[in-house]
UniProtKB/TrEMBL annotation:
It holds the Pfam family HET. Residues 38-102 form the Heterokaryon incompatibility domain. This is Heterokaryon incompatibility domain-containing protein.
Amino acid sequence: HPRCSQAGSTVLPTRVIDVGEEKSPPFLLETNGAHGQYLALSHRWPISLKYKTIMTNLAQHCREMQLESFPATLRDSLIVCRNVGIRYVWIDARCIIQDSSED
């Protein structure tokens, strides 16, 4: 509908991944109600999920997340977003604090 079709009119989720530029690492961004465009990715998680955000790595993820730490499919999605000019991506395992019942 017209209100949502305007560029930049979407309220961003609580946290998104800022994909950065080619030579900068992506990082987790606390949006504080900011508006922007983003893509959402959800996927079936493996039993042993090593790349999730938890309380002990939240601060590190907000500084940077090594592109190599993402599984290939998710890493490729970040690269595609960079190439088409989409700055933010929401990935459930990385944007929701997995060991926080409140989050």
